[in-house]
Design goal:
Rossmann fold, 10 strands
Length: 338
């Protein structure tokens, strides 16, 4: 039997129970190697990443700066944390590395020169971070440190999947973020001096989308500057978006067989900040959108990379390229309110 998280009200538990039905089978699918996808606007001429932070953000919450135009090699690192002593959280981190771009991410590769924005990624129900390599490795190759926890009760291989535990995951995510950001100041750590601790986004798919929305609503983490919600819903975490303006990008297929498109659209409609929704009329819950091959996957990768370049590096050129990425192949539409 799935237990009720202690802090839930009776009404809240009833609402979250709906999540158990809505999110059944929400993983992106089997682990796949990332395709060599090159979003427009990168890689281009070799660029460098400066340690200087962008200028102060304006009303949109977006700073002004320039994103790197080069494509990086990618390193991978495994970390282990435990929130409260009873919530073990293994964490996979993909990061820009020194060396020639392309190929399989290598453990222990030196971090590339510079400071890089951080993207916190949450997997779907019965998923694991490696299921999303086809999306997350290109993010790292574009100049982002991608931090992906494996949640203790909703990941594949967990002892007894507890669907309702998704409401506890925003707190897990914030805890992991705190621990990883601390590495920027830790003597001897490979990430020391390489994390742009003032430029952070959260992203997630399905149950991870619920977790991501929760980080901007019930469990608002005000360190977050932007969000990406892939096939997500606000059930269980609400739509009371609060705190500083944080632009949001929603991605959803209209033929989603797990989380109804209207549920994602309803959450999107409640976002009070600059926002955009990338809609795939023929898109499903994630297999076609996140598997790393095909036009739809290329559009998701290209659009999310430009969104992150704009919101975290403050690159106005990336903002201008974003609609072009969304229009590639004619497989998606973009409601652009950024």
């Amino acid at each position: 039997m799935i237990g009720r998280p202690a802090h839930l009200t009776r009404a809240g538990a009833a609402l979250v129970a709906t999540v158990a039905v809505a999110l059944s089978g929400c993983s992106a699918g089997p682990d796949r190697a990332p395709a060599e996808v090159t979003p427009a606007g990168g890689p281009g001429p070799t660029g460098t990443v400066t340690a200087a932070p962008p200028t102060t953000a304006g009303a949109t919450g977006v700073p002004t700066g320039t994103a790197p135009t080069r494509r990086f090699a990618v390193g991978v690192r495994e970390l282990a944390y435990n929130r409260g002593g009873d919530r073990p959280l293994s964490v996979t981190v993909w990061y820009p590395a020194s060396g020639a771009p392309g190929g399989t991410p290598r453990a222990g590769s030196p971090v590339a020169d510079g400071r890089f924005p951080v993207v916190l990624f949450s997997h779907g129900l019965t998923g694991r971070p490696t299921d999303y390599r086809a999306l997350l490795v290109p993010w790292a190759a574009a100049g982002f440190v991608v931090v992906a926890p494996t949640y203790p009760h909703t990941s594949r291989g967990a002892e007894g999947i507890r669907v309702l535990d998704v409401v506890n995951q925003p707190a897990d995510a914030s805890y992991v973020l705190t621990e990883v950001l601390a590495l920027d100041q830790r003597t001897g750590d490979p990430f020391r001096g390489h994390l742009a601790t003032d430029r952070i986004a959260a992203a997630g798919h399905s149950a991870g989308g619920v977790t991501t929305i929760g980080l901007f609503t019930a469990g608002r983490d005000e360190r977050l500057d932007a969000g990406i919600v892939l096939a997500g819903t606000a059930l269980g975490v609400g739509t009371s978006f609060s705190g500083p303006a944080a632009p949001q990008l929603f991605v959803h297929g209209q033929r989603d067989e797990v989380v109804a498109y209207r549920a994602g659209k309803a959450a999107y409609d409640r976002v009070p900040w600059p926002k955009a929704m990338l809609t795939f009329p023929q898109g499903d819950h994630g297999r076609d959108l996140l598997r790393g091959d095909g036009v739809a996957s290329s559009v998701v990768i290209g659009t999310t990379v430009e969104f992150l370049r704009w919101t975290l590096y403050g690159d106005p050129q990336a903002r201008r390229r974003l609609p072009e990425q969304a229009a590639r192949g004619g497989v998606a539409t973009l409601d652009d309110q950024l």
